[in-house]
Amino acid sequence: MDASGSQQLFDDWEDISDSEFLNIPSEQQSIEPQCHLNSESDGKHFDSPRASTSSMHNRNEEALRQETVSTKNVRGSKRKGLHENSFSPMQRFFKRHLNVTLLCDQSWCEMKTVYSLLKPFVKRKEMQRAEVQIGKEIHLSREREIQDIVRVEIRSREDAEAVKLLNMLHMTALLEAGERVREFPVFGVLEGVFVKGVIDEVMYNQKGELVLNELKTRKQNCLPSSAQDKVNCFQVGLYKLLFDGLVRGEVKKDHVLNHLKLRSGQVLGAGVQAHAKSIGVQVTTFEELVDALLITVSSSDLPCIDLLQIEYYHQGSSGPIGTRVAPFDEAQLRTELQSHLAYWRGQREPEGVDIEEAWKCKSCLYEQTCNWTKNRLQVSDQQADHASS
Fold it and tell me: DSSP for 265-305?
């Protein structure tokens, strides 16, 4: 049973599982609510924590100007951006937390991630591409193979988050009973930053190992390039860190309340409380539900994730392409994560791809406006002129 809200939500908990379609339309040339909480608008709205559309547009224009100034110099030269703007990207983009998909996009190309935030209308257009929509439909279809959708009316941000936590409680019990679950939310503090995501599938295999399975649908009937495979391995590695932290009891109530700016004493709506009772959970406030979830997961029989695998399906035939077991090196994973977070904390300027991966730029919607690309071309021209002189 999968509960979903009956109002439009304004957070970005859910990950886009088929993030590869956001990265590269064709490898030959080489979000926000989406999965678990399938909300729909019924004409009612509650206060959004975000700014209005016009003010957000103005702020994005200002952020674009600041980022443009800070990325005019090539790598290795002295930059002024950090001294001219005292706000970190987390502050400039109003981020209380980061999600796994955003970090994966950053792993593909950091400059593209920045431009997608500065120019959200381009991002929205990209999300409407056929490949992305087909991937979302396949994920939803697989989810509904084992889970029914139950509509729950929500009245506040706390209600919206509560529905997700109730889903986690329900799926924890299913996992303990040996069943498989899909679209399992995870969250926690990684390297000092609150990170959220949604795991495609968690199940036990015949060896009794707890397996994290990530579904990727592809337009091409072949396995992905090594560059995309690296991003996918980074993604499932982050999911493992978050899941393991929950079952180990490393996630604290204050992490959830403080990072997401939620009201601990907020009384849950009647619809949410009714749904909670239907699955055997007796809670009245949001804080009570957070306590119940964290205690239940950390005291459960669930182990840490034993095996990471990525399952590739062909969109055209809906048939399997292949499955890869992803390696997990925690030290290496955290080193890469720390590098990504250095940008969000304002400790360095955003960087584009290295020259060896410049092929990624050919399919990027921001190629014509990307300062990193322009600077790289200017340096190449200067080097060519110097060599010929």
Answer: TPBPPHHHHHHHHHTT---SBHHHHHHHHHHHHHTSS----
- Mean pLDDT on 198-219: 95
What is the reported pLDDT for 59? 52
| Rounded CA separation 37/292 (Å) | 20
CA dihedral 294, 300, 303, 305 (to 10 degrees): -50
Residue with tokens 């925690």: 330
Listed residue (63, 19, 67) closest to 197, CA to CA: 19
Rounded CA separation 195/189 (Å):
6
State CA 337 to chain mean position distance: 13
- 231, 218 contact by CB (below 8 A): no
Could you tell me which of 46, 194, 32 has the C-alpha nearest to residue 116?
Answer: 32
Residue range 87-115, pLDDT digits in tens: 999 999 999 999 999 999 999 999 999 99
pLDDT at 367: 85
| Per-residue CA distances from 142 to 180, 218, 274, 310, 352 (Å) | 12, 15, 27, 15, 35
How many other CB atoms are there within 10 angstroms of residue 282's CB atom? 9
DSSP letters spanning 37-72: S-----S-----SSPPHHHHHHHHHHHHHHHHHHTS
How does pLDDT run across 121-158, given as a tens digit for each residue? 877 777 777 666 666 777 667 767 777 778 899 999 99
Burial 167-193 (b: 16+ CB within 10 A, else e): bbbbbbebbeeeeebbbbbbbbbbeeb
Tens digit of each residue's pLDDT (9 = 90 or more) over 227-254 = 999 999 999 999 999 999 999 999 999 9
Give the 3-state secondary structure of residue 97. coil
CA neighbor of 248 nearest in space, from 188, 194, 289, 170: 188
- Please compute the mean of the pLDDT values over residues 189-206 and round it to a whole number: 96
At a CB cut-off of 8 Å and minimum separation 6, what does 265 contact?
285, 286, 287
**CA–CA separation, 66 and 85 (whole Å):** 7
Instruction: Read off the pLDDT of residues 175-185 as tens digits, 9 standing for 90 and up.
Output: 999 999 999 99
SS3 of residue 17 by DSSP: coil
Decide: 271 and 153 in contact? Cβ < 8 Å: yes
